Amino acid sequence: MPNLRLAPSLAALLLATPAVADSIDGKWCSEDGRRIIIEGSLGLWGTAGLKIAGEYLRYTYLFAMPAGEPEAGQRVEMRFRRMDQSIAVKIGEGEARIWRKCPPEVS
Predict the structure, then answer these.
(1) What is the pLDDT of residues 39-67, one digit of tens each?
(2) Which of the 8 DSSP states describes residue 71?
(3) Strand ranges inside the chain, DSSP E
């Protein structure tokens, strides 16, 4: 009968998989340079980090576009897309755009 026991280092290697997001929380960036950090019902919008309160569900974040933005006051819907770890962002009646996790910051 073959020995099916794995060496501890091999078992650790097989079990080590990259962490994958399973919620909308995190730092998100658009292709045109916009960004948001979502942490539960609190959002930090833009490079200035404007605080916005939104409606948070694990895979959805809804809020009104903050003052100073071209779409100020319009409803923003952000929906997590599990299939490719992105979010679909719809502002007002516009088309949904895909945002991705922001790249790591370099200091």
Answers:
(1) 999 999 998 899 999 999 989 999 999 99
(2) T
(3) 26-29, 35-39, 42-45, 50-53, 55-57, 60-64, 75-81, 86-91, 97-101
